[in-house]
């Protein structure tokens, strides 16, 4: 239980009660139980003011203590975000280094690096803002921070979706249409940059619409501050259009990637029949060879399919929570702070696709595993040699000091 605060004033729906006033002091002194009552107790207002709701005046102590209360309730969400932050930043940094600097530059490796860059931006910029918002809502949560947070994760979500669609189409063309023109490394990089620019431009409206809101929580008798939309854009046409666009991008990503990987699976299982056309005969031979002989294609297809599947699964809880909240009545939306914390957690499960992709790369790519093991062994060897040198130097200095001391005594 949070310790009772020393406060200067309470506001009720009729009057302001000054705790330093002589009348108020007499009331509190006549009832020691009230004077020592935890001010966050939901029943405190009903006992002292006959059921009036209390709103705390903003001051430094009040702000910090209220943030502390909400931080305790948001502990599950904060823990989830912290784990995603650590795993995502470290894992995607390793992916960028290995695929970008240690392995051969190929179209697929360029796609992987692009996804890792988008994921590390989400993990290093968006997630810290979410953590601070949950830990210190009254200090950190403001219109500028909310606009930045919404813009970052909206841009990275849409950009990642467009890149995943491009990868799925590229895999489909390479396996099912091997004679058609294929993207090279330069084209992949330019395409990725173009997709990021498109995502950035289309997410500019969220900078105007996002903002901080406050609502009263009757369960803890406190105001709750959170990031959503500015009051003027709630239930507006502009916000409806933007979120419809964002939902459409995710839905189209799921449909196109599912179709492409199904066709790839179908091509592996059932090679195309020979119609007598020499071109079809060549395509059939190349498709059969791609499905049964070439070891370089299967791991890439498996890897990108698993990354796409993780992307889809990670959005399922978030979409379900949003649909439930949209269909709920206004009275049902007044949730207990513990329930609000878990709502935040499930709405952010899409972050799993940012932090767990490095594990898929580890599982599906033996070359990536070898490079990571080599980097780790070299790092530990360097640390051990540095420690050995430090110990040897320290021992030598101790011997020299001992000899000098002995000579001085003699």
Q: Radius of gyration, rounded?
A: 30 Å
| Count of alpha/pi helices | 17
By CATH, the topology of the largest domain is Rhopdopsin 7-helix transmembrane proteins
Overall pLDDT metric: 77
Give the strand tally. 5
Oligomer: single chain
Biggest beta sheet summary? 3 strands, antiparallel
Compressed to H and E, one letter per element, the order equals EEHHHEHHHHHHHEEHHHHHHH
Strand content is: 5-15%
Strand order of the largest sheet: 2-1-3
Fraction in helix:
over 70%
Low-confidence stretches: 1-20, 30-61, 290-297
Task: Give me a quick take on this structure.
The protein is 73% helix and 6% strand.
What characteristics describe this protein?
Rhopdopsin 7-helix transmembrane proteins, two-stranded antiparallel ribbon, mainly alpha, 410 residues, disordered N terminus, single chain, three-stranded antiparallel beta sheet
